[in-house]
Amino acid sequence: MVAGLLVLVVALGIVGGISEPTAVRTQSPTAARTQSIAAAPSPWPTADPTPGPTPTLTFAEECTTALRPEWQALFTVGDPGYGLDSDFRGDLRQVSVANGLCTIAAERAATRSGRPYVSAAMSTKGGFAQRYGTFEIRVRYPDGQGMWPAFWLLPQREAVEGPPEIDVFEAYPRKFALDGRGGLNVVISTLHYAGGSHTVVYNHGADMTTDFHVHRLTWSPGLLVFSVDGVETGRISSDVPDVPMYPIISLAVGAAGYRADDRTPSIATMDVDYLRVWAN
């Protein structure tokens, strides 16, 4: 997403076999959270006549009562420098948990910078990261001019700028352009690496903003496999990272060539049913 943001601002259009996994944790979940993790379902069928190793759930946000303590704001106050129409607050006040959902709200509000919207990017930076495995989110994101929802991974290190970066999905519901990388039906998955990007563009064939959808990344040495609602959308087998990375859920508003305007809703929400990570 960060590298995607850079591409978005510069170009626009819009510019965002298995080995032993290595997990990084700086906080331990509570006992109650550990129990909920153990109870979460596996992403693989149990009826496989020749099953491989059983995947192990390593992180789960089920959005039941409160956010897990590993979550924090990814950015400090303001636009992180990419020409957005939204500011991030430097905290998670735009994120709420109720009725079994974690909700990011982007809303029109006065900001220190004078930008017309505030929103949030939540991450487990410093709390949880993992090398390889399956990263899955069930999410419903909003329609609206300038809406930019994403689920993405960055390496567990101090700086957030620069590759590698894995965008499990990004969407631009009201960006209708000749390159086909936008619109209500389209989701984009991208690997940004030091020399460029590899991108998968998937047209679902129907409006993605009207219901929940399951976006999944299966990451193994030398291979990224993306899927939506159990349908494989594409594979990337070049320049695949091999370092622990942490998940990010974000909702930004507006950027170069995709500005917020009078068609942009005053309040737009991105609802997360769950986020789960397994080690294969």
Describe, in plain words, how this protein is organized in 3D:
Helices cover 7% and strands 42% of the residues. It has a single domain, classed as Sandwich (Jelly Rolls). The protein has a 16-stranded mixed sheet that branches. With 280 residues, it is mainly beta. The N terminus is likely disordered.
Quick structural gist:
With 280 residues, this protein is mainly beta. It contains 2 helices and 18 strands.
Keywords:
two-stranded antiparallel ribbon, Jelly Rolls, single chain, globular, 280 residues, 42% strand, mainly beta, 16-stranded mixed beta sheet
Architecture blueprint of SSEs:
Layout: H1 2-11, E1 22-25, H2 31-39, E2 56-61, E3 72-73, E4 86-88, E5 95-98, E6 101-108, E7 117-123, E8 128-131, E9 133-140, E10 147-155, E11 165-170, E12 186-193, E13 196-203, E14 213-220, E15 223-228, E16 231-236, E17 245-253, E18 267-279
Parallel strand pairs: 4-7
Antiparallel strand pairs: 1-8, 2-18, 3-7, 5-6, 6-7, 6-18, 7-17, 9-14, 9-18, 10-11, 10-17, 11-12, 12-13, 14-15, 15-16
Individual helix count: 2
Give me the Rg, rounded.
18 Å
Envelope shape:
globular
CATH topology: Jelly Rolls
String of helices and strands: HEHEEEEEEEEEEEEEEEEE
Q: In what range is the share of β-strand residues?
A: 35-45%
What is the level-2 CATH architecture name?
Answer: Sandwich
Unreliable runs: 2-39
CATH class: Mainly Beta
Number of domains: 1
Mean pLDDT: 84
- The secondary structure category is mainly beta
* Alpha carbon gap, first and last residue: 25 Å
Largest sheet: 16 strands, mixed
